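User: My notes are a mess, but here's the protein and 2-oxoglutaric acid's SMILES. Can you give me a structure?
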Amino acid sequence: MGEIFDLANRHRPVSNLFNWPKTKGDWDQYRLTDEQVAHFHDQGYLSGVKLLDDHQVELLCKDLEKIVDPEHPAHDLFYEFHSNESKDPNSVLFHSLGHWRITEGFHDVLWNPAFVMAAHQLLEEKPVRFWHDQLFCKPAEHGGVVAWHQDYSYWTRTIAMQHLTCWTALDDATTENG
Ligand SMILES: O=C(O)CCC(=O)C(=O)O
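Assistant: No problem, the inputs look usable. Here's the predicted complex:
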């Protein structure tokens, strides 16, 4: 078995999954409209922002299939890993933190220009800094539940309203699949 490399030591994208914009103008394709930004400030959320194409989703789903295995060689790099936080086998809630250290896809998705641009705009055009990643998997029909909560109450590492959560879906979340 080869040596385990911790991708947290890499401070830039490590794959070709995303095209990092080369010029200022290259960023424009990712810009939210003024209406989207206004919606965020008015409602406190913004949905429907396209962050991944089919190829990127497919690659991340393949990465996910590998790392949910507790025998994965880089398993010790997770900050947190719970195969089922619900404790009920009929109601599955996989939850992990730290997968950005393990696969190139989950590492580079932090540099997704569509996300970086949106976050920059929504945070009053300030520079964007990553705090932590998080994966929740809730299988169709028997997915577990994360109760309603407000993260802001315990996010104490920054000043008010200088942080946001980016929820990136890897598959459809519909009424039909539960
Ligand atoms: O997606 C979920 O079920 C919970 C997400 C969450 O708790 C969070 O992003 O802080």
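The chain has four helices and three strands.
User: Great, I'll file this with my notes.
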